[in-house]
Design goal:
heterotrimer, A mainly alpha, B mainly alpha, C mainly alpha, B: 10 helices, elongated, C: mainly alpha, 0% strand
Amino acid sequence: MFQFDSFADFMTMDGHGVYVWVSYLITLVVMVWLLVWPLVASRHTRKAVRRGAARQERFAKPRGSAEEPDG
Amino acid sequence: MSTEGDASLGSGPFSAIFVRDLRVALRHRGELANPLVFFLMVATLVPLGISPESSVLTLLAPGMIWVMALLASLLSTESLFLSDFRDGSLEQLVISPQPLWLLVLAKVLAHWLVTGLPLTLFAPLLGVMLALPAEGFVTLIASLAMGTAALSMIGSVGAALTVAIPRGGLLLSLIVMPLYMPVLIFGATAVQQAVDGFSASGTLAILGALFAFSCMVTPFAAAGALRISLHG
Amino acid sequence: MASFYQWFHRLGAPKSFYFLTGKWLPWLALATGVLLVAGTVWGLGFAPQDAKQGNSYRIIFIHVPAAFLSLAGYYVMAVAGAIGLIWRMKLSFMVMKAAAPLGAALTFVSLFTGALWGKPTWGTYWVWDARITSMLVLFFLYLGVLALQYAYRSGDAANKASAVLALVGTVNIPIIYKSVDWWYTLHQPATLKLTGASTIHPEMLYPLLVMIAAFYCFYALALILATRAEILHRERRTAWVAELDGG
């Protein structure tokens, strides 16, 4: 069952509140960042590829298909 | 320079590299003195920065001397491959048909003889300056002899990884420091045990084991790292 | 056996990895979210108070999983590096590259939460005990690999060099743990026994297990996301990447 008598109690954690909540908060921030930066980087790369592809179409250069992926 | 492919110690590639490196190092005798002077000067920083009282110095001496030897050794590690890299002879070593790990071993041994060994021999002087009790001196020399050798071997891997990087010296320190720590722990503890009147032989044995282990592993790691640095 | 080998090799192609993981990702994200929320709520609000430490022990529910994953993550990074070196698998190097900042961040979390746990419990933010010191050295090992990666200009050489360094560090980790542990027992003040909790109350153990599972899922999720980002970047000039957005 819930260990605390009130929400205020939950926040202060018998005086240890700062330590507990700052820990969880920093951890949350780090974890969110670890998930967000790859997503942002991926989006950035895909945007750049789209721009490159669009430019290619616009100038209609007679290129062969882009290199085959290897591996 | 011998072109034989055999790996015997008396002749062949090992001794060729070994002798050559020693000759080159002894030609620049001034540079040899740098780690020693550093060692000495840092020893002066300790009483200035902490306390000149013998009682305090005695407490700190085993660890401090070891830390300073480690730093001096770290400083000199960068030079292991750097000059050869710059003048192209490292490339020759890497593409030569001789086993690269053997050549690395020769270079490290020569390097130790002109850096780690002088540090070891100088250490008793620091012991006197930092009020190391008499019981600690023999163990100090023994631990530093094996320890600086292990540090040289471990440092060669870091040096090989960073030789092609401009201003790689600081990166070298960063990489190599965690690898140095076990050697420091056992070396300093051995001296402390001797000072406290206990037998340090067990600890020295572990230190010897670390050295032996580094001899087995690091030449190959350093050889691989050299190939990566030079040829990508 | 042949089909496993085929599957493994197909998985090793960056393009297949990208599409395969694209299918798993939503489920993995869901599992991660559910476990994290459940474990956190349980640990923060429903696990009983500790007799000695009161409520500050609740930090354990993030500190311990982060510590586990930071250590396991180093081995993931090193193994990925080894596979890349031995089998010259590009994808393996990409995983290794993704694992480095991830592991370093988790090590930081472990150290930070450990310090915040230490203050109310033992009165000090930092103590040079065996586990904390070993974790700090692990952090240095990660930093070394990261620094080496960024120092090299050629991507290929950077990967190989990082792999070598990671492997050397792998050998070093048990040596460091053992030597720091031994060193600390020599110097440990007799009255201070820091990391007890050898018998943990089941009502505290279960939320901890949930959080450990949650962190493993999180690690996999973050690692896959970062690897995918690296794949996109490396393969940005290929046709299949151009076709991703119908280009």
